[in-house]
Amino acid sequence: MKSLRAHISSRPPGVAGLQLNPGIAFVPFIPGIQHASPRGPLGNRATYGTQGPRKALFPYSPHSTVSTHCTGYPLHQDLGKRSGRAPYSTNVTATHEPKIHHVFEAKTGTWQYIVADPATRTAVIIDPVLDYDAATQTITTGSADALLALVQANGYRVERILETHAHADHLTASSYLQKQLVQRQGFRPPIGIGKRIAQVQRLFSQRYGLAKDEWLGVFDKLFEDDETFRVGELTAKVIHLPGHTPDHLGYQVGDNVFCGDSLFHADIGTARCDFPGGDATHLFQSGRKLLDLDDHVKIWPGHDYPPEGRDPVPWMSVRDQKEQNKHLSDVVTEEEFVKMRTERDRHLNAPRLLHPSLQMNIRAGRLPREESGHRMLRLPLKLNGLNW
């Protein structure tokens, strides 16, 4: 299997770009409204962490696991293998630390986060998922509605929606959430992302033939490297973490870093680097930037792909990552990492939702402009040398 970069890009002088195949299919999709289902495919319910038995608090997406973690104390581990649920904790929040709700969207293996200041009930949402069925081109909102229910249940005011990067494996729900929240709380939370998103937008808008007015200015806030902002009485810091993509950011709040697609769980390792603008050397440097933080700092990844026998795990400490990460532990050199990562990426398949994800996400999750009564996404065809 050739690398993803070879699959979707060719490099004109000095630029990594997406080279679409000769044929392009226009695929309509249906923005359906599917309210959050009270039960998942196996009949299990989402739960809110308590010290006693688990109780369902609100309906949720069929593919989501909802958990809560209050930082500053050890994470209680629920290791029931049949539950398929992530660990959770409801210990008292440490001073100047956020309350973190981690919500796992199992269909795409994505961690979504609500990070709140307990003192003011101010919150931010990080990397929300918009549900998309590729077989029917149908968009639904169960995962995003679960986040809204969690916000409502806790009485939060969402002041920002944050993206770590333009995702290529799932669609973002940022725009949908923004519209829902302005109706519910009377305030339009800005959607924030790193300032380098502009180069990603220019690249993929050209390759997919998107008009400039469909992507220009769709993000309300473009963060500078090391910029700080407030989450209630807490201070959050932006950390540039390139490698997976050039625009990639992490967000540090207290002793927690939401690192997106850079470091994953130690038995998974690190994110791929074969997207246009991706770079294994940069990812190594970003990983070391994270691992140079204090040992007790928690690293919260953007995804988990747990092997059989392990539940999704929302965080690991810097110390555990340094000791255990299969790609980037303290004993791995930059040369070894770059060689391993480059070779590994060469054999990875393209993400299943690559093309719809990129087209939606460079728009910040806004729906495509209506054409002839439909909203259309473009899908490149694989012709395998055929031409007539």
Automatic annotation (TrEMBL):
Sorted UniProt keywords: Metal-binding
InterPro entries: Metallo-B-lactamas (IPR001279), Mito_Persulfide_Diox (IPR051682), POD-like_MBL-fold (IPR044528), RibonucZ/Hydroxyglut_hydro (IPR036866)
Family annotation (SUPFAM superfamilies): Metallo-hydrolase/oxidoreductase
Gene3D superfamilies tied to this protein: Ribonuclease Z/Hydroxyacylglutathione hydrolase-like
Domain Metallo-beta-lactamase: 109-303
Biological process annotations from GO: glutathione metabolic process; hydrogen sulfide metabolic process
Protein name in UniProt: Glyoxylase B2
